Each structure stands twice: as structure tokens, then as C-alpha cells.
Amino acid sequence: MLVLSGIGIVVFGFLLRANPLLVVAAAALVTGLAAGLHPLAVLAVLGRAFNENRYVSLVFLPLPVIGLLERHGLQERARMLIGRLRNATAGRLLLAYLLMRQAFASVGLTAIGGHAQMVRPLIAPMAEAAAERAGPATAAARARIRAFAASADNVGAFFGEDIFVAVSSILLIKGFLGESGIAVQPLDLSLWAIPTALLALAIHGARLLLLDRRPASPTKVGES
After folding, report:
1. How many CB atoms lie within 10 A of CB 99?
2. Alpha-carbon Rg for the chain in angstroms
3. Beta carbons of 156 and 101 less than 8 angstroms apart
4. How many angstroms separate the CA atoms of 145 and 127, rounded?
5. Share of the chain above pLDDT 70, in %
6. CA dihedral sign, ordered 196, 197, 199, 200
7. Which of 27, 51, 74, 86 could form a disulfide with 69 if both were Cys (CB 3.0 to 4.6 A apart)?
8. Which residue pairs from 201-210 have beta carbons closer than 8 angstroms and sit at least 24 positions apart in sequence?
9. Count of CB atoms within 10 A of residue 152's CB?
10. Residue 141's closest CA among 87, 221, 224, 215?
11. In Å, what is the CA distance from 159 to each residue of 79, 124, 144, 155, 168?
12. Mind listing the pLDDT tens digit for each residue in 99-151?
């Protein structure tokens, strides 16, 4: 039962809002000692676990970088850039991003894009700036533009990645069909994903272009 004392340390440490790293390290040390391990052996286990899973933490590294860029005016610069393009509209900009997202995902580059990396700091502010050429947008209009920006990323990545033969979703489909007695090759699944991706591009692209027909600024009194 003493081996389970590490769980109590984790619960108690989190209740006290202590440093999570210190809490986990203390719990691991107490658990290892209770199991009869030498302190150096416990340290070796912790080091090996960190070394084997160090790449997991890499996905969190862009977040503070993006936060610093936003603090120093990344969104403002994005708005200024889109303001210089006379023919740019919110729908056209989001359609271009949808095309880019789906094209990169179809060759396996799913990491190029994403809500945290692209949509929130760049794509959404640029689309809002394009929609505000006629005047400040309402809160509902800004929320609608942000929602369409997020949907462009989702649709592009979801339907584009299935074209890439080595993606995990293709292997999942192949495994499921194989368990049901249906023999199919990953390349065939990728080829049949192309029409679906093109239809998704056409349907959602049309929805993005129709976004330009909905006014973002409030209608002034006396205007028809």
C-alpha cells in the first residue's frame, strides 16, 4: 500500500497549487523508495522517461512564441497587410487559406496551419480587417468571420489529409474494413478521397464567398 502513497502526494500537491513538476518528481521519488528502489535508480527512470517523451513537449513550444508575437503587434501587422490589398475580401482570403490548407494536408503537411498557429493570430484578424473596409464590424459579424476562419482550417485539414496515403486515418479505415472482411489497399482509399475533398472544397468555398454578401458593418439610418 505504501507504493500508492505517490497518488496522495499528487492530490495533496495539486490541492496546495504547488509547482506541478516538483509535485510529480516528489511523488515519483516516494513511490520508488516505497517499492524498494535506490534513489539513483528512481532518478534514472525519470531521466529515461523524459528522454523518450521529450518530443511530446515540442508541440507546446510555439504557443509562448505566438503569445509574444501577438503582444508585440502580430495581429495589428496582419491587419495592416491585408488593408493594402484592395481586392481582398474576407471570403476570398478564407478561400485562399482553405485551398492552401487542403493542398498541404493532401501531401502530409498537416502541421502547416492550425487554430493556434495560423487562424487566431493571422487568418482571423486579416479576414476581419478585409471585412471592415466599409466601417467597423459588429460583434456578431466578427464572431461569424472567426467561425468561418476556423471552419476553413477544419475542412481543409480533414478532407485533405485523407488524400495522403500514409496518414493515420487511412490506416484506421483499412483496419476497420479488414476486420469486416473487406480487403482494400491504402492507395485505393487515398484515390477515392480525392472526389470527396474536391466536393468539400467546392461546397465550403461557395459558403466562404457568400460570406462577402453579408454586411459586417451596421447599416446606417436612411440607407436602403
Report:
1. 15
2. 25
3. yes
4. 7
5. 79
6. positive
7. 74
8. 201/98, 201/99, 201/102, 201/155, 201/156, 201/159, 204/98, 204/151, 204/152, 204/155, 205/95, 205/98, 205/99, 207/148, 208/91, 208/94, 208/95, 208/98, 208/148, 208/152, 209/91, 209/92, 209/95, 210/91
9. 29
10. 215
11. 29, 21, 22, 6, 13
12. 999 999 998 888 888 887 888 888 888 888 888 876 787 888 889 999 999 99
Assess contact for 119 and 153: CB atoms under 8 A: yes
What ranges do the domains of the chain cover?
2-52, 59-213
Cell 479576414, residue located: 127
Measured at the alpha carbon of residue 189, what is the angle toward residues 187 and 194, in degrees to the nearest 5?
A: 100
How many CB atoms sit inside 10 A of residue 4's CB? 9
Q: Using alpha carbons only, what angle is made at residue 89 by residues 205 and 133, rounded to the nearest 5 degrees? A: 150
DSSP state of 223: -
Closest to 126 measured CA to CA, from 92, 160, 162: 92
CB 127 within 8 A of CB 90: yes
Q: Are 132 and 80 in contact (CB under 8 A)?
A: no
Q: What is the mean pLDDT of residues 52-63?
A: 57
